[in-house]
Write a structure and sequence with these properties.
about 260 residues; alpha/beta; 7 helices; 9 strands; about 30% helix
């Protein structure tokens, strides 16, 4: 069927490249690729996930056990990011410029590296990874972005059982470094001093990742600009990678969806 052909094209792209590793998380090495929206018989119709924020924080429902893992990528993008809490927003939120991506509403696409492929993992595959790496906990650290990432992490991890805490168990930490708040409030030197104070990490019991700053299309607060976000992100990579921290590139991914 047409849907099977479309889904097969995604599989073919994955099988045609080597699997990505964390070392492939570099700046300027990827792009968003749009695919035809999957049929409702393959991925359930897009519905709000009322367990993760409800109507306040739009999230499409996903179940990694009952639907193929690539269904994670489908979305009604015009439903997202329509609220604004800043003073005076209600007068302009319906009169702003938005990209063509939002005009059709439905979106189905993936961020793809030029040199390698990211595998889509369902509940069973994630559980195998948890068991193999002996993971007992996944901790998200940071500020406001931490809350957003936490909702998606909880949704993706439904049905997955973390292992019991033992002396050999591993804890995975995902740290946003409190971006963009540090971009807003700290000077480059102040942020550098904070990074210098962060300890070295390593060993079998901890695995530490940090998320870069986002791409900002406008100045959300004073000093929160795209140039400073990239400057802070590069500084974090230079300071933390030698200490054993692993970078997740959020800057490029959000640049593709800046609207």
């Amino acid at each position: 069927s047409k849907v099977q052909i479309e889904n097969a094209s995604i599989t073919a792209k994955v099988e045609g490249k080597r699997a990505c590793s964390i070392e492939d998380e570099s700046f300027g090495n990827g792009r968003w690729v749009k695919y035809p929206f999957p049929d409702d018989s393959v991925c359930m119709p897009v519905e709000l996930d009322l367990e993760e924020g409800g109507f306040r924080n739009y999230m499409p429902k996903y179940n990694g056990t009952s639907m193929p893992p690539f269904c994670w990528h489908r979305d009604n993008i015009d439903k997202c990011c329509n609220s604004c809490a800043e003073q005076g927003c209600r007068f302009i939120v319906n009169h702003r410029w938005v990209s063509d991506l939002r005009q059709t509403g439905k979106w189905f696409g993936r961020w793809e590296n030029y040199d390698c492929s990211y595998d889509d993992m369902g509940t069973a595959e994630i559980q195998q990874c948890i068991d193999r790496k002996n993971i007992s906990d996944i901790v998200v650290k940071g500020a406001s972005v931490k809350e957003m990432l936490g909702r998606y992490l909880r949704q993706k991890m439904k049905g997955v059982q973390l292992l019991n805490q033992t002396a050999k168990a591993r804890i995975v930490i995902l740290d946003t470094l409190k971006m963009p708040h540090v971009v807003w409030h700290d000077s480059v030197k102040e942020f550098e001093m904070k990074l210098d104070d962060m300890s070295h990490v390593g060993g079998e019991t901890y695995e530490y990742y940090f998320v870069t700053g986002f791409y900002f299309s406008s100045e959300r607060e004073p000093h929160v600009t795209v140039d400073r976000s990239l400057q802070f992100s590069n500084l974090a990579r230079e300071k933390l990678a030698p200490k054993g921290y692993k970078m997740i590139n959020a800057f490029d991914v959000t640049a593709g969806f800046s609207f």
